[in-house]
Amino acid sequence: MKIEHLVWLRNDLRCLDNPALHSASLEANALNKGIGVVVTVTPTQWSEHNESDAKTGLRAGLIKTLAKTLAALGIPLHIINAETFDALPEAMTAFCLDHGIKHLWFNRDLPIHEQQRDHSVCEQLHKHQIKTHTLSADLIVPQAVFSQQGTSFKVFTPFFKRWLTLLAQQDITPLPAPESQADPLPEPSLNFTWEKHFREDLWPADHDIAKQKLWLFCHHKERHYQESRDYPVQPATSTLSPYLALGALGPRQCLEAIIYTCNQEERRWQDSIWLKELAWRDFYRQLMEHFPFLSMSRPFKQETNALLWRNNEAEFTAWCEGKTGFPIIDAAMRQLNQTGWMHNRLRMVTASFFTKLLFADWRKGEAYFMSQLIDGEFAANNGGWQWSASTGCDAAPYFRVFNPTRQSQTYDKSGDFIKRFVPELATLDAKSIHNPSPEQRKQCGYPEPVIDYKPARLAAIAAFDELKGR
Description:
This protein is an alpha/beta fold. It has 20 helices and 5 strands.
């Protein structure tokens, strides 16, 4: 069978619920042709985008398991090595010409650099009469979610209402994997020089395990998500974000699991709080497309460019290393550094601490998170940091400043989470562990707080207040 159709996979490393792979397979089958799959490897570009070693490691593992799955279907997977996006137009064109490819299929990426990459590749291929087919972005609702006036939403709540309306009008069934097109191919042997270490014990690079984790979460935890999700010591969240970030799971697969579970329990699936969290993911990714300057390290609220961030390097280092003297902040940062993942509430608390109390530039915190997160998604990470810094779309009010000690007392009452990641405090009682006395800190070898909460909070509010007079 002659292969004339090539599917280009990026952060959508899966067979199930993959629009480009599904559509290419249907068209090729109708013409009695075959498909191939290509993955472009750009490690220098990933590094320039601050992607973590953990994410790079998981990506390598997922490519290997995907190659085996495709080989069983008689579909070859090819690797194109190109250090940066700029090298891809020539590399992709050369590959297509060498292999007799007539059609390239891919799913849309939304950040501006990725869009520029795709445009350059398509432009080069068109010069050689190679057709390109762009499919939906990896969103639950892939179409633009606009207001009745045809404008992009800047506040999540009305976006979510409209998003639910559009969701009810579309086909929500996950797309099937492509059918076998030939006898199984030899199992590929892929060795990547750029492969990095990641916590494979927590996130195995296995699509079947990812799907199993999804259904177990929906069956056992989704119904309790609202009341349990804020407590970091409890295993109450899905922890599926690394698989979503690299596309090992498709968004409609998550939707299917939510709908099935809620129907079984006679609950309205539209009321699922976890579904709402997935809608936030769509919201931030659509914002990235509608407002390209968000991809350029610029705040959504342009007036906040006038803020004079303190950017104390010693405090920045203490925050990165989990040595700020605030136990819940340090526990969260050490969780990030040790596992590549951080509980969602703690992402808000640590980002608020960074931007409002250390009064450090949110872009430095955003970049550090990306450099560590196994689930680092540019749009979601940017949206979360700008929300915390009160510089973004539908952001937290600037006068809302998390009190880290109060957050700790509320959401880690017994201090068990702190004890897990800040073991030097493990002997303290449940009251004092949230804010040890100077004597206790000395005995435990734990630092004094890098800032004084009350004056730091007032200084941040005053700095934002000054903007109103400009």
